[in-house]
Amino acid sequence: MNQTSMVRTEKYAVAFPRRGSILDANELNAVCDLLADNAPLSAGEWRDRFEEKFRQHIGSRYALSVTSGTTALEIGIRLLDLRPGDEVIATCQTFQASIQPLLDLGVRVRFCDIDAETANIDPDAIAGLITPDTKALILVHYGGNPADMDQICTIAHQHGLLVLEDCAHAIGASYRGRKPGSLGDIGCFSFHSSKNITTLGEGGMITFDRDEWAERADRIRSNEVDAVLGPPGSALGLPPSALPWMKFADGAYRHSYTQILGSGTNAVLCEPACVAGIVQLDKLDGFVARRRMIAARLDEVLAAHPELVRLPAVDPRDEHAYHLYTFFVRTGEEARYRLIRALDEQGVEVQLRYFPLHLTPEWQSRGHRPGECPVAERLWFSEHMNLPCHPSLSDEQVELMCAALENSLNHLR
Q1: Model-level pTM?
Q2: Segments forming the whole domain that contains residue 252
Q3: Given 26, 75, 125, 402, which residue has the most CB atoms within 10 angstroms?
Q4: Tens of pLDDT along 14-37?
Q5: Quick check: 112 and 94 in contact, CB under 8 A?
Q6: Phi/psi of residue 308, each to 5°?
Q7: Is 15 within the bounds of a domain?
Q8: At CA 28, angle to CA 26 and CA 29, rounded to 5?
Q9: What CATH number does residue 157 fall under?
Q10: How far is CA 283 from CA 121, 325, 402, in A?
Q11: 292-349: per-residue pLDDT in tens?
């Protein structure tokens, strides 16, 4: 498909969101109140409040905010304690940030194919990829549709693997009554502008239950050394009370290190972002309800054309967050191309997310090749479709999109 031929200069009548949620006077007033105060704008009480609210929402023991979803994944992967020669199983159907930190670690990635019905990692394909060197499994809840975590976690725990959930799409979803981010060992969330809630454009959260990870993750995000701490005492040979007024040197007098694991970084989510995050989290249920309403309307149109298209499977016990609205064209690449063109010409923007990671240049340079994940390749190159589905779409835009979809499918017959 010549994708460049479909670029339009005018705005789409129904476009993919520049913002995946809605910001209004509630966020503005909350941020203005903060700015009018004399409180710190970094690492203050609002970060603590946001993290506690998020922790309670997810149902995890810990929730630590950071500056982006990518940073959450970087720190989450750091907690896996991977070493050169280790292997990690990862879904191939996700954004590059899910596994990009692995490029720096000297580990081998074994890409797992996806389930043709859900576009999530295929649990039945995982076991065949496990070797004695496998240490972890990284998955995404594609589009906000929870992966089969019971089966995945059973396999992983039988083999001693840690499970990292990329939950960038999944806030607002539920799996058997539980929230993604509390199902595996580590959850990583994004609050990018396009996501179901945002912390003013960028932001992220790491969730987990392990006590031993809490201080490590906090040290990493706080520009301190990621290390195994020794007993209290001064690394400099000075008494702990030598300089009690030097708040930011306090650690040097309280701790010694028995092992340095790596450097830290400044990944502190600022207070205005945390204030906005609290307001957005209160709105989440309404945002997701709107997404589900739009998805149900699109489902209704597509269900009338079962010979041409099919819908992803959603387990009735689960709740889809519809960060992405996905469906599949049954009749092949040419039919999909015609459908995309027809929708484009009627003002409906179509995007395809995401290009299979094992076929990207950086991973092909590590030896990965076509044919490695045949289901993902077939779906992406021939069947996969994404349509706009976000709460800022008006009823008029939704009906325009549905009419364009109905018209386009009728012309495919």
Answers
A1: 0.93
A2: 226-262
A3: 75
A4: 999 899 999 999 999 999 999 999
A5: no
A6: -105, -35
A7: no
A8: 70
A9: 3.40.640.10
A10: 30, 20, 26
A11: 999 999 999 999 999 999 999 999 999 999 999 999 999 989 999 999 999 999 999 9
3-state SS, residue 64: strand
For residues 315 and 146, what is the distance between their CA atoms, to the nearest angstrom? 9
Which residues have CB under 8 Å from 274's CB, separation 6+?
A: 46, 47, 49, 50, 65, 199
Amino acid found at 306: P
Q: What is the pLDDT of residue 233?
A: 53
> What CATH number has the domain bearing residue 393?
3.90.1150.10
| Whether residue 212 is found in the same domain as residue 151 | yes
Sign, Cα dihedral of 182, 183, 185, 190: negative
38 in a structural domain: yes
Task: Tally DSSP H helices, then E strands, for the chain.
Answer: 12, 12
Tell me, yes or no, whether 12 lies in a domain: no
Question: For the segment 344-397, what is each residue's pLDDT rounded down to a tens digit?
Answer: 999 999 999 999 999 999 999 999 999 999 999 999 999 999 999 999 999 999
Between the alpha carbon of residue 5 and those of residues 1, 189, 341, 394, the distances in Å are 9, 34, 10, 28
Q: Are residues 186 and 245 in the same domain?
A: no
Q: For residues 122 and 115, is the Cβ–Cβ distance under 8 A?
A: yes
Count of structural domains, the chain: 3
Domain assignment of residue 179, yes or no = yes
Sign of CA dihedral 363, 368, 371, 374: negative
Radius of gyration, alpha carbons of the chain: 23
Q: Are residues 46 and 144 in the same domain?
A: yes
Same-domain check for residues 58 and 176: yes
Q: The tokens of 133 are what?
A: 């060197």
Q: H or E stretch including 344?
A: helix 333-345
Give the confidence band of 52 by pLDDT, cuts at 50, 70, 90. Answer: very high
